[in-house]
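Section 5: illustrative case.
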């Protein structure tokens, strides 16, 4: 199984863009450059970058010399912060992945407890893993 197969395409593109920016040492980078270098469709990326700015992951500046950069150091940004705007599984109204209309801790479906353990492990990984851990830059930044 490829890792990306558990993420939406939007989340994968968001990760690519943030890792690309982490590897550019605080430089402001244009959306076009990120799209070209991270192999993400430019129009699609512009919406993703705007969502990441709203989420506080990126800063942006308009005009000549403008672009995008990380809002915090790479070792201060957990993967959860990047993915949570795009992954419905992290929302407050988590749907049952098996399609059950009634499924909660109080009224669990047959797969609830097992799926909850998987989701909890996944969320723990995303909270504990930083951009610096996956970008190849180390934890110095």
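Designed sequence:
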């Amino acid at each position: 199984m490829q890792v990306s197969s558990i993420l939406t395409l939007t989340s994968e593109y968001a990760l690519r863009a943030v890792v690309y920016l982490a590897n550019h040492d605080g430089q402001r980078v244009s959306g076009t450059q990120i799209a070209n270098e991270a192999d993400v469709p430019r129009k699609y990326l512009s919406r993703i970058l705007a969502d990441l700015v709203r989420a506080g992951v990126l800063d942006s500046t308009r005009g000549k010399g403008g672009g995008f950069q990380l809002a915090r150091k790479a070792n201060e940004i957990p993967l959860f912060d990047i993915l949570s705007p795009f992954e419905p599984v992290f929302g407050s109204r988590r749907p049952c992945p098996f399609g059950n209309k009634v499924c909660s801790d109080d009224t669990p479906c047959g797969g609830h407890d097992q799926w909850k353990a998987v989701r909890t492990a996944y969320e723990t990984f995303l909270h504990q893993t930083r951009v610096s851990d996956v970008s190849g830059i180390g934890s110095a930044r």
